[in-house]
Amino acid sequence: MTKDDVLNALLLAIPKDRDNAKGIAEGHLKKAILKVGRMKGVDFNRDIQTFTLTANQKEYIIGRDVLNGVGGVWDIDELYLIDEERWPVNVVGIGDFDSYARGSDSTGKPQIATVHSSTAILEVWPTPDSAYNMKALVRKQIENFDDIPSGYHDVLVDYGIASIVAAGNPAVAVSFARDGLADVQADSRTSWEGNTILVARHLGDTGGSTRVDSGNLRP
């Protein structure tokens, strides 16, 4: 479907007595694009990107220090060292990151990372002791019609029509508001849902060199 096709479908749902029907349809289409564009578990809003960490620097502002050519980055789903075989850097929530890394002055190859703050700060632990090339799976902010695959344009129509109906139905409007608030509360700049971190060595012991397969996130 073209953008005009979607708008024409939305126009059919707008009451005939409404002024500026096209503008109303365009507003609800923008809302539908934002809703569909921020969905998790889909591929059209995710890209593989590469960047380099700097020696002795543990914090990076996304969009300025790293990933500055990507556009809006919503979160980082996966992170790996490119030049090290089987070396994932687990991207965890800020609470889990703080439990193990806060206050530590260890340096070495990064083992865990988090993304936090309104400025989207990527923080890694240990602090890199060298420049490390990284590969990241990032979720991007989607705001344009052309960024939604054509196979999902029917979803834009359905959500847009539902949004138009909600505008004139208080009960449906409340349901939409609750759904939107749930999105806000559930969203995070990290996608960590596990309870195990793969580490090069026990997080409490940075002196050894033996590599282990995994460690419990919490003792």
What would you say this structure looks like, in words?
The protein has two domains: 3-40 and 143-186, no CATH class; 46-141 and 189-216, no CATH class. With 219 residues, the protein is α+β, with helices and mostly antiparallel strands. It is built from five helices and eleven strands. It is elongated, with a radius of gyration of 22 Å. It has helices spanning 3-11, 21-37, 94-101, 153-167, 170-186, and strands spanning 46-53, 59-61, 73-81, 90-91, 107-108, 112-116, 121-125, 127-128, 132-140, 196-197, 215-216.
Write a brief structural summary.
The chain is an alpha+beta fold and 219 residues long.
| Strands side by side in the biggest sheet | 2-7-6-4
Number of strands: 11
Main beta-sheet annotation: 4 strands, mixed
Whole-number radius of gyration? Answer: 22 Å
Give the helix tally. Answer: 5
Whole-number count of domains: 2
What's the overall average pLDDT, rounded?
A: 84
Instruction: Kindly estimate the percentage of residues that lie in beta strands according to DSSP.
Output: 15-25%
Low-confidence stretches: 192-219
Spatial gap, N to C terminus: 53 Å
Order of helices and strands: HHEEEEHEEEEEHHEE
The gross shape turns out to be: elongated
Secondary-structure-derived class:
alpha+beta
- Provide the helix percentage: 25-40%
Secondary-structure blueprint:
Elements: H1 3-11, H2 21-37, E1 46-53, E2 59-61, E3 73-81, E4 90-91, H3 94-101, E5 107-108, E6 112-116, E7 121-125, E8 127-128, E9 132-140, H4 153-167, H5 170-186, E10 196-197, E11 215-216
Parallel strand pairs: 4-6, 5-8
Antiparallel strand pairs: 1-9, 2-7, 3-9, 6-7, 10-11
